[in-house]
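Anyone up for a design puzzle?
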């Protein structure tokens, strides 16, 4: 029904040459390894065209890490969804906590970005997640619910095109992973919230990925949970071997 997905988020890492080499290695290894999930690599804007030329779309799909909420025009330095699409990319990460935290992206902007991505045929990988304070004061379910509900102005048909990534901010790049139970509980909560708005069928067909210090050593346990449909991987996506180790957790 819903897809298992392992997606890499390279963030602001690798020069163009390094990125092309990494993409080449990942493509070759994914191709020769039996795997039971879709594989996506989300790379810096500057790398999209070259990486697209290097990978085979039925082996590894390509995504960007952001796009503008605007269509086009006088927005110096911005990259539109249409531009991302024109490189051959099929996916785009939106609402990553680093974008929310360091660049002040808010729910309204993220809804506009999501609409731009969808209008241009890109699949958003929409990130949600609470900060440590929310986890500690017990408001984490409400915080994440509000982030998901920011998208509830989308039609059911559009919502069904999304991939959701639950990434507790306290687990990103910290080496501190949510336990498989914590991930499962939140994924089940997100699915319930989606079901209440769009119905059980939509909720059951939405892939919800976990992100936050996911590694080959913990991926199998996380992915064994019924509502965890894969991972959005930061640090461990920057080495082909560790990324493959996570992909193989689905075998
Ligand atoms: C991320 O930033 O999307 C992420 C999950 O990072 P890491 O795996 O490095 O925690």
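Challenge accepted. My sequence:
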């Amino acid at each position: 029904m819903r897809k298992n997905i392992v997606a890499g988020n390279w963030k602001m890492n690798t020069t163009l040459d390094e990125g092309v080499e990494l993409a080449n290695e990942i493509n070759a290894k994914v191709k020769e390894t039996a795997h039971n999930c879709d594989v996506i690599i989300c790379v810096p804007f500057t790398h999209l065209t070259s990486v697209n030329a290097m990978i085979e779309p039925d082996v590894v799909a390509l995504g960007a890490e952001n796009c503008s909420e605007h269509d086009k025009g006088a927005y110096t330095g911005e990259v539109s969804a249409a531009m991302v699409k024109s490189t051959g990319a099929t996916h785009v990460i939106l609402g990553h906590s680093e974008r929310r935290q360091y660049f002040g992206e808010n729910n309204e902007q993220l809804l506009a970005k999501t609409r731009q991505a969808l209008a241009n045929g890109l699949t958003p990988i929409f990130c949600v997640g609470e900060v440590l304070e929310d986890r500690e004061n017990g408001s984490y379910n409400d915080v994440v619910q509000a982030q998901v509900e920011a998208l509830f102005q989308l039609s059911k048909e559009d919502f069904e095109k999304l991939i959701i990534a639950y990434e507790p901010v306290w687990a990103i790049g910290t080496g501190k992973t949510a336990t498989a139970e914590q991930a499962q509980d939140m994924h089940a909560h997100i699915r319930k919230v989606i079901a209440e708005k769009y119905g059980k069928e939509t909720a059951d067909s939405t892939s919800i990925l976990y992100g936050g210090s996911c590694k080959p050593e913990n991926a199998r346990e996380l992915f064994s949970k019924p509502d965890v449909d894969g991972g959005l991987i930061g640090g461990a996506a920057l080495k082909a071997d560790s990324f493959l180790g996570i992909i193989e957790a689905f075998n």
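A detail worth pointing out: The first strand starts at residue 5 and ends at 9.
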